[in-house]
């Protein structure tokens, strides 16, 4: 163990020994330069000694071996470093070459004391390099095999193959866990074994395969049965499998959704329960609120009948109005909750579109200041009566109800009419950014300005839902001619097939009201005063064939302050007069039964001529349906004969004169 | 408040007396409410420059119409009778002359071969007979009413 024992001089024997050793050997200087190479090395590496001796190791190896990865050279450097540092031999990882061989080097550092004399590299064949060396599937595993193992090992999904007939061909761990069948028990059985009685009765398994062949895949959710007879809620996806364009079977993936399903149904049950509670609560509350509210309002109206000072009357008025608004709010909320919970029913009844619209206009008029001018245009082709829900139609109109109303038939087929109703106003309009939210519940766009319209912000969304219930749509447009808005909606109504059907409708239409009822709330003196202020500037046309009646009408109208009264003795004359001066008259009072041309025909012709002067019919027939017929022929209102002064005042005090 | 109510009541009864007393004599010939509306159109209750000529005009119209009805009756022209009935019914109703109005209604109905209730009366001769009766009644009623009116307006109303 003497540290500096001199080496015996290297004799030719030793050189020969090195040369003839059946090993590919290299001797390196401490600076990794090749100083010696064995004959076997030169043979194996097919290199001449002159090209080898004296070369730097790394460039030499890089040049001689066509490495698949340059990084493999690092195996060599790190092994040499390692061996030198440890003063012990090391073997590199296989260094792959493109020539489908790999090389390992055994590194032997040779020290004399602390001095590195040389490094001996002994090369040997490594294992043949594989293409998949760096793929996740480790060397020796084909892709097919990887997938097979993967599928086999999946425990959360049942994944298996069916042959073209639907018989089970493969079985994975997931399938065994989920369905309970062992691999040997199930292979070769038809997959309908998993289905329940009901599904089998409708031949569902085969249907699924048929659909799958047609569409390429099929997905289903339903109950599937395990070996022990218990069932689970499954999501099943079947995919048709083709090999080289030929159908070879089906791939089936089944997932157990029992947990999700039960969570879902718990959630739905909880939601339904809370919806029901909410609805019940609202219904109860609004009932509880409405009952005393009605009591209060009745008391209010009784109080109004009593002699009160102006101040007191004003206060009662405020109470009454606020009560009405509150009632409306309650009704809105109830309606809305009914609509959203699907509790809303649509009735089928006879609807007189004209009378509903007229009645809404009249009611709205009564609630608005006199400065608001109202006009009602009914298209001449509006049907007299249709079948549908008059109450809902009325409700929509009331909800969007505003200043100007126009109703017309938009489209018509064999069984139904689609009625377009427009409400046009010249009010403040709707700002652009609010349009998209108009029909959203609980939004009111103009919250900043001082607003007379109190409410829940539900009106339009109720109207929207109702219109949809009636098979129509609702919308908004800016008024093209003025500032203001156009709200429109359509609703579908059935045609009434025959007269017999008409007569079977014994129930009176709820919209058919006495022609003067809403205006009756305003006192006669008020109306008379109002009319007196307007009448002297207004032009009337009285159409009446009977001289005595003419005189009485003229007399009555004069006492109301009218000075400009035209006269026509039959419908034809009236039509001629109105046509020649379309803008001359503010109101036409039209007798119905007249010689030459009756009031119905005359009104129809006036409307057909595009003249929308208000026409008030005067008819001796006070039968139900007369009113509808008058309105249907384009007249705006009607009064009965003999003409009663008060009735006439009420009719004339209505919108038509308020230009 | 009590005072107010009392005031009103007394005022109402005063109104009642003024309006109803002279009209009581008309009996069921005239519908008070309608006829008083006509009278209210007079600017002066003494002159009655609106109602007096109007009523006079009505009797002229009635007489003319009765003549036309007679002609139609002789011709057996139901259609014309019905329309004449309707015509005079209109003006008599306007003035509140109930009896004449009702007779005219009969004439109009039977002219349509219907009775008062609207049931069909297919027998034309029967209809013509009923119309003749109603026309006769209407003439009598008109005459009676004319006397009452003459008295009311305090001037001779010629036919």
From TrEMBL, chain A:
Keywords: Kinase, Phosphoprotein, Transferase. It comes from the Eukaryota. Residues 218-269 form the PAC domain. It is an enzyme of class 2 (transferase). The keyword Membrane does not apply. Residues 504-523 are annotated as: Disordered. SMART domains: HATPase_c, HisKA, PAS, REC. The modification 4-aspartylphosphate is found at residue 591. It catalyses: ATP + protein L-histidine = ADP + protein N-phospho-L-histidine. InterPro entries: CheY-like_superfamily, HATPase_C_sf, HATPase_dom, His_kinase_dom, HisK_dim/P_dom, HisK_dim/P_sf, PAS, PAS-assoc_C. Its EC number is 2.7.13.3. The keyword Transferase applies. Residues 159-216 form the PAS domain. Residues 539-656 form the Response regulatory domain. Residues 507-521 have a biased composition (Low complexity). One of its GO terms (molecular function) is histidine phosphotransfer kinase activity. One of its GO terms (cellular component) is plasma membrane. Residues 284-495 form the Histidine kinase domain. NCBIfam families: sensory_box. PANTHER family: OSMOSENSING HISTIDINE PROTEIN KINASE SLN1, TWO-COMPONENT HISTIDINE PROTEIN KINASE. This is histidine kinase.
From TrEMBL, chain B:
Residues 1-11 have a biased composition (Basic and acidic residues). One of its GO terms (biological process) is phosphorelay signal transduction system. The modification Phosphohistidine is found at residue 86. Keywords: Kinase, Phosphoprotein, Transferase. Residues 47-152 form the HPt domain. GO terms for molecular function: histidine phosphotransfer kinase activity; protein histidine kinase binding. Residues 1-21 are annotated as: Disordered. Pfam families: Hpt. This is Signal transduction histidine kinase. It comes from Staphylotrichum tortipilum.
């Amino acid at each position: 163990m003497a540290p500096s024992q001199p080496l015996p001089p290297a004799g030719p024997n030793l050189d020969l020994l090195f040369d003839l050793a059946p090993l590919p050997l290299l001797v390196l200087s401490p600076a990794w330069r090749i100083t010696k190479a064995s004959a076997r090395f030169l043979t194996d590496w097919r290199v001449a000694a002159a090209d080898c001796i004296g070369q730097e190791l790394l460039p030499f190896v890089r040049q001689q071996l066509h490495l698949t990865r340059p990084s493999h050279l690092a195996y060599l450097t790190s092994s040499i470093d390692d061996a030198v540092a440890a003063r012990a031999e090391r073997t590199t990882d296989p260094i792959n070459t493109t020539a489908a061989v790999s090389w390992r080097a055994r590194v032997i550092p040779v020290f004399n004391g602390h001095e590195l004399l040389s490094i001996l590299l002994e090369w040997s064949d490594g294992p043949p390099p594989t293409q998949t060396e760096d793929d996740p599937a480790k060397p020796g595993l084909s892709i097919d095999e990887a997938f097979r193992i993967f599928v086999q090992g999946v425990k959360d999904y049942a994944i298996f193959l069916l042959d073209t007939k639907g018989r089970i061909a493969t079985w994975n761990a997931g399938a065994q866990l989920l369905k309970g069948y062992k691999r040997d028990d199930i292979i070769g059985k038809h997959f309908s074994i998993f289905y329940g009685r009901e599904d089998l009765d409708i031949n569902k398994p085969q249907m699924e395969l048929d659909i799958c062949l047609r569409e390429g895949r099929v997905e289903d959710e339903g109950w599937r049965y395990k070996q022990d007879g218990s069932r689970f809620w499954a999501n099943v996806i079947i995919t048709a499998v083709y090999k080289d364009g030929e159908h070879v079977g089906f791939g089936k993936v089944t997932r157990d959704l029992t947990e999700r399903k039960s969570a879902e149904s718990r959630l739905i049950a909880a939601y339904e329960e809370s919806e029901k509670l909410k609805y019940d609560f609202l219904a109860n509350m609004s009932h509880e609120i409405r009952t005393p509210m009605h009591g209060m309002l009745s008391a209010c109206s009784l109080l109004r009948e009593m002699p009160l000072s102006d101040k007191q009357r004003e206060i009662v008025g405020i109470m009454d109005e606020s009560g009405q608004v509150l009632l409306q709010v309650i009704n809105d909320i109830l309606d809305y909750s009914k609509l959203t919970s699907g509790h809303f029913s649509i009735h089928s009844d006879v609807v007189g579109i004209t009378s509903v619209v007229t009645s809404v206009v009249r009611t709205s008029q009564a609630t608005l200041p006199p400065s608001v001018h109202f006009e009602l245009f009914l298209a001449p082709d509006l049907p007299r009566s249709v079948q549908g829900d008059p109450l809902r139609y009325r409700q929509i109109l009331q909800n969007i109800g505003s200043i100007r109303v126009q109703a017309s038939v938009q489209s018509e087929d064999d069984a139904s009419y689609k009625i377009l109703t427009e409400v046009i106003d010249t009010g403040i309009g709707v700002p652009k950014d609010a349009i998209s939210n108009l029909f959203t519940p609980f939004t009111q766009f103009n919250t900043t300005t001082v607003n007379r319209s109190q409410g829940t912000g539900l009106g339009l969304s109720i109207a929207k839902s109702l219109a949809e219930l009636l098979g129509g749509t609702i919308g908004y447009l800016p008024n093209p001619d003025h500032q203001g808005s156009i709200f429109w909606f359509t609703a579908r109504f059935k045609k009434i097939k025959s007269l017999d059907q008409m007569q079977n409708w014994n129930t009176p239409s709820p919209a058919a009201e006495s022609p003067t009822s809403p205006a009756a709330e305003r006192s006669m003196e008020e109306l008379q005063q109002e009319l007196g202020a307007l009448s002297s500037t207004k032009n009337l046309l009285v159409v009446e064939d009977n001289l005595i009646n003419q005189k009485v009408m003229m007399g009555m109208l004069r006492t109301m302050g009218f000075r400009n009264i035209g006269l026509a003795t039959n419908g034809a004359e009236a039509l001629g007069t109105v046509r020649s001066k379309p803008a001359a008259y503010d109101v036409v009072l039209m007798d119905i039964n007249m010689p030459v041309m009756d009031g119905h025909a005359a009104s129809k012709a006036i409307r057909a001529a595009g003249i929308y002067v208000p026409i008030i019919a005067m008819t001796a027939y006070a039968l139900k349906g007369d009113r509808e017929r008058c309105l249907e022929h384009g007249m705006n209102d009607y009064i009965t004969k003999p003409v009663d002064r008060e009735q006439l005042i009420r009719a004339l005090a209505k919108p038509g004169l308020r230009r | 408040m009590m005072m107010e109510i009392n005031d009103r009541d007394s005022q109402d009864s005063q109104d009642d007396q003024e309006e109803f007393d002279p009209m009581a004599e008309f009996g069921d010939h005239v519908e008070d409410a309608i006829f008083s509306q006509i009278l209210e159109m007079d600017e002066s209750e003494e002159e009655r420059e609106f109602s007096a000529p109007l009523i006079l005009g009505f009797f002229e119209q009635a007489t003319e119409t009765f003549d036309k009805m007679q002609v139609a009756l002789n011709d057996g022209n139901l259609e014309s009778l019905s329309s004449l009935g309707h015509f005079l019914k209109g003006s008599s109703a306007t003035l509140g002359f109930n009896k004449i109005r009702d007779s005219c209604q009969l004439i109009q109905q039977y002219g349509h071969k219907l009775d008062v209730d609207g049931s069909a009366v297919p027998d034309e001769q029967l209809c013509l007979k009923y119309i003749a009766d109603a026309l006769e009644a209407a003439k009598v009623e008109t005459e009676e009413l004319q006397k009452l009116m003459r008295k009311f307006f305090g001037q001779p109303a010629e036919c």
